[in-house]
Amino acid sequence: MTGRTLSRRTLLQGALVAMAFNPASRSWAATLEPGSVPLPPLGGALLMDAASLTAAAEDFGHIVHCTPWAVLVPGSVGDIVAMVRFARRQGLHIAAARGLGESHSTYGQSQVPAGIVIDMSALSTIHEIGESSAWVDAGVRWRQLLEATLPSGRSPPTLTDYIELSIGGTLSVGGIGGQAFRWGLQVDNVLELDVVTGEGELVRCSPSCERHLFDAVRSGLGQFGIIVRARVRLVEVPPRARTYTALYGDLHRFLDDQRWLIEDGRFDYVEGSVVSAAGGWAFQLEAVKYFTPGAEPRDDRLLAGLGFQPGTLQVTDSSYFDFANRLAPLVAMLQQLGIWEFPHPWMDMFVPARSTAAFVEEVLSQTTEADMGQGPILLYPFRSAALTAPFLRVPTDPHVFLFSLLRTAIPPTPENVAALVRKNRAIFERLTAMGGKLYPVDAVPLSRADWRRHLHPYWERFEYAKRRFDPVRILTPGQGIF
């Protein structure tokens, strides 16, 4: 229904295409040389020009830069199967990325030093849209899917705040948004997957077929297979959205009201943030009700009992799509100013509700506006019972808060970036000590021991899945787990 077709002429313009691999020198060649191994037939191409390799050594963090040896622009899923098998035979690492330099990880998680990066943006076709699901390529952006489903009044149940992320990318990590308290994360709303395992096998998996693989790759951080297609759940949504924002001065009341709202269910979306106010911090509630014209929400009923500060309430109406795509104007401005390309030493944390107030107060007491570089601080709850992917590790509390320090390094100097990463690591130590977990897309250096603690009590299960689906450990080395 939608998609992008790469013409071979466009693909080859300005690019150097590999035709063979030399096992002795561990290098690619544009011609078949003595001692080299020819590549399998490809509908796309394997690029080895400097521009492609440099682009593949970037991500949204702009902190870690690991240059691969080649970039696969697949012409089909079959190209990914063929290159994973080739990489396995030659002992090469390989990983998928949203697009060259477009991965939304912030610490090199999708980069592959001396290996192969797959540009998944080349596979971006929406194959089918039905009443309750859509069958899509992993390179499709959530915005593309939403534009295709809204004419029939349907949407994925949970959307990330930034909807230019790829479907395969967020399903490999989690995919959290303000609807998660009701629907779970995006990994909880996928019905079926096509996956290329680390052995180069294309497998269709679901809750009723190849369940072990299905559970492993959802939030599996790219360790067991490359998601190439997904069947995503769709739900009916009204065409309009009413957004309510209001400020709190008291953190405890703010957290209590948020937890009350996700249990009460009166809103369709509940988020919150920490904002600067009079030399300190205040707390902003953001709650949204979807509606159909002629059946507008009753503001008085929706806001009854909430303890926000008088005079701080703002109410705005928009289309559902404009609400979902609300960050687009801000991102465009940041791109125009060049700030989008600054380093982003982000830190996203899952905090147990019982400890959230004390932990947030402690972190905020050590955080300045300069530390954030005008980046937002998110703070909102969801229910842990709604989560179904075993390797998405969260605290055991019934309610869990996402607490995100979405930093921009200003100035963008190596010294400032290093200082912010050190602060992230210190916060991580405190988070781990009080039973919290990291959302693993962030700029926090982790050891293998850290990963074992993070995945506890599922570490043995995680390790077994690696042996089963990627026994020679070629997939996604940038995570640093194995």
Entry keywords:
alpha+beta, five-stranded antiparallel β-sheet, single chain, 28% helix, 482 residues, eight-stranded antiparallel β-sheet, 16 helices, globular, disordered N terminus
Description:
- The relative contact order is 0.12.
- The chain is an alpha+beta fold.
- Helix content is 28%, strand content 24%.
- An 8-stranded antiparallel sheet has the order 18-15-17-16-20-21-19-22. It has a 5-stranded antiparallel sheet with strand order 8-9-13-11-12.
- The two termini are 39 Å apart.
- It has 16 helices and 22 strands.
- A hairpin with a 2-residue loop joins strand 16 and strand 17.
Q: What's this entry about, in short?
A:
By secondary structure, the chain is of the alpha+beta class. The protein has 16 helices and 22 strands.
